[in-house]
Amino acid sequence: MTAELVRGQNHPLSRNRVEVRVSAGAAVLALASTADEGGRLAGPGALAHPGARALPGLEVPDRVGDRHRFTVDLDAVGAAVHLVRVLLVLPPGGPARFGEVAAPYVAVAEPEGAELAGYTLTGLDSESAVVALELYRRQGAWKVRAVGQGYAAGLGALLADSGLAGPAAEELSAAALGAVASGDVTLATLPTGSAPTVPRGLRAPRDPAPAAPAPEPPDPLPVSGTPYAGTPRPATASGPGTGPAPADTIGGPPAIDYAHPRRRRTSTEAPEPAPRPAPAAEPGQPPRPVAGDASGWSMDERLYNQVWGMFEDLARTVAAYRSAVDFADSRLDRELDGALSDPRHRLGGSGNTARDTARARREDLVAQARAVLDRDLEQLTAEAEVVEPALPAAYARWADPVWHADRGTPEEGPLALRLGDLSLPERPGLRIPMLMRLPLERGLWIDNGRTGSEAAMTMDTDRLRRLAMDMAVAHAARLLAVHPADRFSVHVIDAAGAAAASLAPLVRAGVLASPPAAGAEGVTRTLERLTRRVDLVQMALRAGAPEDLPPDVDRAEQLLVVHDFPHGFDDRSVTRLRYLADEGPAVGVHLLMVADRDEASAYGPLLDPLWRSLMRLSPVPDSHLADPWVQHAWTFEPDLPPQGSRVLEQALERVARARRSGRR
């Protein structure tokens, strides 16, 4: 039985040698590309096209046409390949955009046998190149995912979005289309018959249902670190086919960056042993999850990548379910409209029968989609239950036993830091760790204002402010505890002295670089010291002598915690704070602000760049963050030490002991 997929939905493959079948309403090029676990092409040689048809495990057609078949042997693509994309491109000489032709249909089937999964690419308009399907490796098994991500700028834009540099992408696009333009490949004529038949009677609606007005987007999830390509880039979130490119969504939630930092291995460093293989699954059941089954040179790196994969899988499987429900609702509306407008249904009970039949079809479609969603959620829940206990301290919740173990002082910093948990309403109990990449390339802003979210509006102002500062202290303590003892120096600005209770653990442990700065004079003195450090390090780097710094300059990474901004700040101090937020991260000065934006409204748009440069977090559970793939609004829940526990104090005491022993 063919699994008929909707955009974003995935389906397990029962075999690793499959046939890809394409049926289009116009002559198209059928191409294929291979990519690594991060979804990035290894280079120009990772695209199979008519001028270079073969890659390990696959060979694409050598012609242009409205029907294509080619075989993919997933056992032969190579261990480094985690993703095979099926691409459709409109060649020169035919229609200029997919919106002019009938919706293409792409299927994955047994070679010369029955179809396993199919997908109709509805909703295309100005696009001339599209990622139709992805065959991807997950927990040692292969799945197919319906993508349908189109590119109006053509194949070059598609390849650039897959990781090729701009010139290389355009050159490869020209090579792929060159044979068609030169006449070396036969261009099939546009069929004059009816549009390709979609199997099993499922037809794309003539006019795709208009998308519902987009709600105010949630704040983009934390953006930090360097994406796979090397240099930071803003998230365009162009759709399900794109990789994680986090950035603040205009007017709302930030997109989370789980991009892998690609730590370089030294010549003497050997990779840690691979995780033990998954226990044998029952026949017909998915593989049993194993902690650390992703790629990486260390267990921490593999766990980090596994969390990233779980996050993407949950985003996409919920997107597929919501898309299926939307499709079912739009089809019900069309059928009800048709029943009301048909004169034959105005007499007798036939109108009621038609409406009941339409509603039953809608419920059947939704039930099928829910069954697929529940299957995927159960698998992800099982994986989370295995992964969570295996996480290192930097990724683990404060309540996890790893924080109570005497781990000693870390010899190097982690890849990321846990800030909290993310969940979706379809399964609130399934929570994905929200990890922020290190080193911090973006400051954090903990919003203690009551107008920031509905959850905050229900809270007492004093309690909300205390909770926000407790959250800031917990993040600072975690940062200190998971790095070598001398890696970070922490400074605090508390101009009014209102955060003394929250700051008590840091003060008692003696881990602050200096006592919390109070009053306008303390604010000025602290900002002057850090601004000077930024200037001196920048000059040393430009001179090519990063070690040539005055002896009074602290060479450790600096974290500045600002409480109750803008209290105690004058115009000059505000300018310095903006400078630190913009220039500091590149030279090791990082900002963690606890503030109510409304209280700084007197500065007007002057501070807008500051707020945009910081990653906004809520101290109470709130749906203000979005993923970089399908832009779901995720509920963020901060991770705080359990009430009554001394785990945070114990972590800080270990840092203090390590510092004292290091001075002897």
Features:
664 residues; alpha/beta; Lipoxygenase-1; Rossmann fold; 3 domains; ten-stranded mixed sheet; five-stranded mixed sheet; 11 helices; 30% helix; 21% strand; globular
Structure in words:
The chain has about 675 residues and is an alpha/beta fold. It has eleven helices and 22 strands. α1 (about 155-160) runs antiparallel to α2, α6 (about 460-480) packs parallel to α7 (about 500-510) and α6 (about 460-480) packs across α11 (about 645-664). The termini are far apart.
How would you characterize the largest beta sheet?
Answer: 10 strands, mixed
Under CATH, the topology of the largest domain can be stated as Rossmann fold
Number of helices: 11
Helix content: 25-40%
Q: Beta fraction of the residues?
A: 15-25%
The top-level CATH class of the largest domain is: Alpha Beta
Given helix and strand content, the structural type is alpha/beta
Number of E-state strands: 22
> N-to-C terminal Cα separation, in Å?
72 Å
Q: Provide the number of structural domains.
A: 3
- Stretches where pLDDT falls below 50 for ≥5 residues? 182-271
How is this structure best summarized?
The protein has 664 residues and is α/β, with parallel strands linked by helices.
